[in-house]
Amino acid sequence: MSGPKPGLVDMPHWPRLLSVEQAAAYVGLSVNAFSERIGNPWPPGIRIGRRKLFDRLALDRAVDGLSPRKPESPAKELDRGRQQDAGGQVEAR
Fold first, then answer.
1. 2 vs 73: CA distance, rounded Å
2. What pLDDT does 18 receive?
3. Residue 61 burial (CB < 10 Å; 0-12/13-18/19+)?
4. Of 62, 64, 72, 87, whose CA is between 20 and 30 Å from 29?
5. Does residue 27 have a pLDDT over 90?
6. How many C-beta atoms surround the C-beta of residue 62 within 10 A?
7. d(CA 23, CA 14)
8. Distance between CA 73 and CA 61 in Å, rounded?
9. Is the preceding peptide bond at 41 cis, omega within 30 degrees of 0?
10. Nearest 10 degrees: CA dihedral of 82, 84, 87, 93?
């Protein structure tokens, strides 16, 4: 038994696997615009039975790849802060 699907506005926490409608909304596109670009840049999705679902983390990586400046990972940012606090030189990688 399943109840009504929550509206996208009612989803403060997105599920890990998203329907095509949810995935399009997650990246800020219409379903048609998202669907036309599945495979490049959007990941191809995961088949579960007859449903095609999109991994939210894979969508995040795809968006990161589109960004002109790639964000530094939180771990590297934390490590950089520790090196500076210790008075060490921060080497470029």
1. 38
2. 96
3. exposed
4. 72
5. yes
6. 17
7. 10
8. 12
9. yes
10. 100
In the numeric block, the tokens 């909304």 are attached to: 25
State how far the alpha carbon of 80 is from the alpha carbons of 21, 72, 92, in Å. Answer: 39, 10, 10
Q: Token pair of 71, please?
A: 């964000």
Could you please report the per-residue DSSP string of 12-71? Answer: SS--SEE-HHHHHHHHT--HHHHHHTBTTTB---EEETTEEEEEHHHHHHHHHHHSSSPP
Tell me what percent of the residues of the chain surpass a pLDDT of 90.
53
Which two three-digit tokens encode residue 50?
């007859």
Task: List b or e across 10-44, with b for residues whose CB sees 16 or more CB atoms inside 10 angstroms.
Answer: eeeeeeebbbbebbbbbbeeeeeebeeeeeeebbe
| Dist. CA 18–CA 14, nearest whole Å | 8
User: Who contacts 44 (Cβ-Cβ below 8 Å, separation ≥6)?
Assistant: 38
